[in-house]
Each structure stands twice: as structure tokens, then as C-alpha cells.
């Protein structure tokens, strides 16, 4: 049985899904073709994703392709309950997703999706993958492969492969250029700033914003904060990325120094304990802390809760903690994925490319069932190119093509000075 907040919310969700659908032309075109071709006929897909309007349109494509789909939430605060109800009612997927659920219910949702006895896994954060390997190993022989959409999940799956624990091939959607160059940079950049503003309504112009991590997500957040007039400071553990931030015109400091200057701290690292209570003790009274990484481990929330002398709800997704020294720290969205929990998730225009890449990766696994070894395999270049070409066409953009003479030059070594 599906697990929903309220099936009566479906009408609201359906309108929002249609609004996103209009802004996802690549995925819409794929859906139309697949409705005739049925390339996924017979596949059973368990998907663990943020339950948003964009995800709804991915479900539409997969079902149109002939797959049976069960969807569960990949984060307790990213589910849109009206969208979940509309997917269940209108789009042919069974949904297990309730916003704001506790940990026990979260994993009840994951297990509900696995009850479909999947042949394919579509994951965001690798919770579904880890659960099927650790708790439902009897399902593994039927699974021909999986995909993973986020940086944190790809790290987990590569670690599983290194430990010889991964039992089926995985395509890391996050590594595709058509995903991370756009989704991570422009999507995370925009919705993180959106989440900060919805949760606090602060003025970013003139504020010191510390961005922990300068990968593609960190780049996006830093660029948008800077564009709104903030003084942006980057913290990093990677020397090359730190140099990139410096040459991009940003200040680079270790966290213990950056924390003392911060009005806002945003974590985008995919690692844990990036902001500790020791860092918080150095911060200004009223400093804001938020996380744009997938899991709620980047900020030491449990330590903050146990150390604080009081806790006070200020606004939606904004809770004030008072430390023993007397100064206050404002935690956004419980330290969870800020752009999903406090804002509207990634814009449909970038998720169009991400989910088209994801859908084509699923088709690739179906077409090559039994051919790929259990490992993390790169997304084929032809999938990236197919998505990019379709997106350019949607923007009515044409580009140059190599002449035969240029192609000959680029594929030879004889031409020199």
C-alpha cells in the first residue's frame, strides 16, 4: 500500500507537476518517444529520490517507457506532499513519501519501494542501495543495475565497490557533465540562496557568507551569494580547489578563522563535522548555519543540541540555539538539505537535463543487462551528447560542426610547426 500524507492534495500537486513539465522539454520528448517504443517494458524500478515536481516528470517518463515504478523519498524534508499524492493518483507510480517523517518511517518508505522486487535501482544518496545490500540481499540476483544521482551517493557506491560489496553495476548520473555542470552549480546555487531567504529574509548584500567546499555545488552557492553583494569566503581541504577559489576572486580561509567573520555559513562538502560546536563558539551572535549537502552530518547538530542551554523556534526552518557563552546560533532546516527543505528544490530547467540523463542511463542498463560487471561505470559520452543536443534544440540554439579538414587535423599527429 502507498504511504502518503493526504491523497486529497493531488489536485494541487498535479498543477505544479504540469508547470514543471512545460519547462522540461528534453524529458518530455523522451517521454513521448518512449510511450511508443516501450524500451523499459518488463522493468521494475525502485526509486529513492526527492519527491518534487521534477521527479514526478521522471516517473512519467519511466512509466511511459513500460516500467513498473515504486518511489520513496530520499530525504525526510524534501518531499512535497501534494506532489506525492498526484504521482500516486495520476502518473502510474506507487509512492511512499511523507514530509517531515521520523527515521523509522523514512526507512519504512525505503522498504516499501523495495517490496516491488526491483530489477533496477534509481538512487539519490545510496540509502536504497545500502538497504537492499544489507537488509534485502534476496532481491540482489534480480537487479540488473542501478543509477546514483548525487555526489554523496556516488562516494558511498565507490566505497562499496572498493570493499567488494557492490553486487550490481551502477552508473553515476552525478558524474555526467549534463548533470553536475548544471544541476550542481546552477540548481544548488539558486535553491540554496532561495532557502536562506525563505527561512530568514535576511539581506545578503554586505553579509559575510562562508561556503564550505568549492566543488560544483560550492561554486554555485558562492557565485550566487557574490552576485547578491555578499563578501564570500571559501573553506577547503583540497589545495587545487582552494586555488581555484582564490583565482576566482574569493577569500580562502580555514574554518576556524572564517567562522569568526561569518554572518552565514553554508556547507557543500559531502563530508561530516564540517562545522563543529567549537566553530560555533567562535561565531557572531546570531550567525546562520545551513547545509546544502545530502546528509545532515555536515553540521554537528547533535553536539549543538546537547551543548545549547536553550532552543527556540523563530521561523519556519529557522531555530535559535543559545550556547553557554550566551551568544545565539540560528540553524536552518534542521541542518538538512537546505534548498530542498526550505525552498522549492532545483529549477525544472536544470532537472530536465539531470533526469533525461538518468532516464537514458536506465535504458542503457536495460539494453546491456548481464553485460556489465558489478562496479561503478562511467556514464557513456553518447548519453551526455544526446541530452545536450536536445537541450540546445529546446533553446533554439545551433552550433558549428567540424569540417572534414578540421576533423582530420584533430585526429592526426603529423601536422606540426
TrEMBL record:
<feature type="binding site">
    <location>
        <position position="183"/>
    </location>
    <ligand>
        <name>substrate</name>
    </ligand>
</feature>
<dbReference type="GO" id="GO:0006730">
    <property type="term" value="P:one-carbon metabolic process"/>
</dbReference>
<feature type="binding site">
    <location>
        <begin position="150"/>
        <end position="152"/>
    </location>
    <ligand>
        <name>NAD(+)</name>
    </ligand>
</feature>
<dbReference type="Pfam" id="PF00670">
    <property type="entry name" value="AdoHcyase_NAD"/>
</dbReference>
<dbReference type="InterPro" id="IPR000043">
    <property type="entry name" value="Adenosylhomocysteinase-like"/>
</dbReference>
<dbReference type="InterPro" id="IPR020082">
    <property type="entry name" value="S-Ado-L-homoCys_hydrolase_CS"/>
</dbReference>
<dbReference type="Pfam" id="PF05221">
    <property type="entry name" value="AdoHcyase"/>
</dbReference>
<protein>
    <recommendedName>
        <fullName>Adenosylhomocysteinase</fullName>
        <ecNumber>3.13.2.1</ecNumber>
    </recommendedName>
</protein>
<comment type="pathway">
    <text>Amino-acid biosynthesis; L-homocysteine biosynthesis; L-homocysteine from S-adenosyl-L-homocysteine: step 1/1.</text>
</comment>
<feature type="binding site">
    <location>
        <position position="271"/>
    </location>
    <ligand>
        <name>NAD(+)</name>
    </ligand>
</feature>
<feature type="binding site">
    <location>
        <begin position="292"/>
        <end position="294"/>
    </location>
    <ligand>
        <name>NAD(+)</name>
    </ligand>
</feature>
<feature type="binding site">
    <location>
        <position position="124"/>
    </location>
    <ligand>
        <name>substrate</name>
    </ligand>
</feature>
<dbReference type="GO" id="GO:0005829">
    <property type="term" value="C:cytosol"/>
</dbReference>
<feature type="binding site">
    <location>
        <begin position="213"/>
        <end position="218"/>
    </location>
    <ligand>
        <name>NAD(+)</name>
    </ligand>
</feature>
<keyword id="KW-0378">Hydrolase</keyword>
<dbReference type="InterPro" id="IPR036291">
    <property type="entry name" value="NAD(P)-bd_dom_sf"/>
</dbReference>
<dbReference type="GO" id="GO:0004013">
    <property type="term" value="F:adenosylhomocysteinase activity"/>
</dbReference>
<keyword id="KW-0963">Cytoplasm</keyword>
<comment type="similarity">
    <text>Belongs to the adenosylhomocysteinase family.</text>
</comment>
<feature type="binding site">
    <location>
        <position position="236"/>
    </location>
    <ligand>
        <name>NAD(+)</name>
    </ligand>
</feature>
<feature type="domain" description="S-adenosyl-L-homocysteine hydrolase NAD binding">
    <location>
        <begin position="184"/>
        <end position="345"/>
    </location>
</feature>
<feature type="binding site">
    <location>
        <position position="184"/>
    </location>
    <ligand>
        <name>NAD(+)</name>
    </ligand>
</feature>
<dbReference type="GO" id="GO:0071269">
    <property type="term" value="P:L-homocysteine biosynthetic process"/>
</dbReference>
<dbReference type="InterPro" id="IPR042172">
    <property type="entry name" value="Adenosylhomocyst_ase-like_sf"/>
</dbReference>
<comment type="function">
    <text>May play a key role in the regulation of the intracellular concentration of adenosylhomocysteine.</text>
</comment>
<feature type="binding site">
    <location>
        <position position="52"/>
    </location>
    <ligand>
        <name>substrate</name>
    </ligand>
</feature>
<feature type="binding site">
    <location>
        <begin position="215"/>
        <end position="220"/>
    </location>
    <ligand>
        <name>NAD(+)</name>
    </ligand>
</feature>
<dbReference type="GO" id="GO:0033353">
    <property type="term" value="P:S-adenosylmethionine cycle"/>
</dbReference>
<feature type="binding site">
    <location>
        <position position="346"/>
    </location>
    <ligand>
        <name>NAD(+)</name>
    </ligand>
</feature>
<feature type="binding site">
    <location>
        <position position="179"/>
    </location>
    <ligand>
        <name>substrate</name>
    </ligand>
</feature>
<keyword id="KW-0554">One-carbon metabolism</keyword>
<keyword id="KW-0520">NAD</keyword>
<dbReference type="InterPro" id="IPR015878">
    <property type="entry name" value="Ado_hCys_hydrolase_NAD-bd"/>
</dbReference>
Amino acid at each position: 500500500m502507498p504511504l502518503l500524507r493526504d491523497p486529497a492534495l493531488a489536485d494541487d500537486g498535479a498543477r505544479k507537476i504540469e508547470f514543471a513539465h512545460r519547462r522540461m522539454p528534453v524529458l518530455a520528448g523522451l517521454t513521448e518517444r518512449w510511450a511508443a517504443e516501450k524500451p523499459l517494458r518488463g522493468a521494475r524500478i525502485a526509486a529513492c529520490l526527492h519527491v518534487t515536481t521534477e521527479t514526478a516528470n521522471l516517473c512519467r517518463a519511466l512509466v511511459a517507457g513500460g516500467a513498473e515504478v515504486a518511489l520513496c523519498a530520499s530525504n525526510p524534508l524534501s518531499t512535497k506532499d501534494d506532489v506525492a499524492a498526484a504521482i500516486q493518483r495520476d502518473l502510474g507510480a506507487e509512492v511512499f513519501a511523507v514530509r517531515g517523517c521520523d527515521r523509522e518511517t523514512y526507512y519504512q518508505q525505503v522498504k516499501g519501494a523495495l517490496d516491488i522486487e526491483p530489477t533496477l535501482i534509481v538512487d539519490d544518496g545510496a540509502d536504497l542501495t545500502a538497504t537492499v545490500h544489507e537488509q534485502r540481499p534476496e532481491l540482489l540476483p534480480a537487479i540488473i543495475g542501478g543509477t546514483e544521482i548525487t555526489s554523496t551517493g556516488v562516494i558511498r557506491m565507490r566505497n562499496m565497490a572498493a570493499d567488494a560489496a557492490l553486487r550490481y553495476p551502477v552508473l553515476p548520473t552525478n558524474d555526467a557533465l549534463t548533470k553536475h555542470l548544471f544541476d550542481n552549480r546552477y540548481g544548488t546555487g539558486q535553491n540554496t540562496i532561495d532557502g536562506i531567504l525563505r527561512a530568514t529574509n535576511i539581506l545578503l548584500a554586505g553579509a559575510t557568507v562562508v561556503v564550505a567546499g568549492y566543488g560544483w555545488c560550492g561554486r554555485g552557492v558562492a557565485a550566487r551569494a557574490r552576485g547578491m553583494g555578499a563578501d564570500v569566503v571559501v573553506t577547503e581541504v583540497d589545495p587545487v580547489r582552494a586555488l581555484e577559489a582564490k583565482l576566482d576572486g574569493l577569500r580562502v580561509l580555514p574554518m576556524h578563522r572564517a567562522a569568526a567573520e561569518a554572518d552565514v555559513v553554508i556547507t557543500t562538502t559531502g563530508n561530516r563535522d564540517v562545522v563543529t560546536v567549537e566553530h560555533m563558539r567562535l561565531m557572531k551572535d546570531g550567525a546562520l548555519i545551513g547545509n546544502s549537502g545530502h546528509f545532515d552530518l555536515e553540521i554537528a547538530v547533535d553536539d549543538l543540541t546537547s551543548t545549547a542551554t536553550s532552543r527556540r523556534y523563530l521561523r519556519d526552518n529557522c531555530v535559535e540555539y543559545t550556547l553557554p557563552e550566551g551568544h545565539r546560533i540560528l540553524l536552518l532546516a534542521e541542518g538538512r538539505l537546505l534548498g530542498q527543505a526550505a525552498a522549492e528544490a532545483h529549477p525544472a530547467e536544470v532537472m530536465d537535463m539531470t533526469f533525461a540523463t538518468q532516464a537514458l542511463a536506465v535504458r542503457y542498463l536495460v539494453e546491456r543487462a548481464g553485460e556489465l560487471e558489478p562496479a561503478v561505470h562511467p556514464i557513456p559520452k553518447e548519453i551526455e551528447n544526446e541530452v545536450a543536443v536536445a537541450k540546445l534544440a529546446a533553446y533554439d540554439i545551433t552550433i558549428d560542426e567540424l569540417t572534414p579538414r578540421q576533423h582530420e587535423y584533430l585526429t592526426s599527429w603529423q601536422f606540426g610547426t
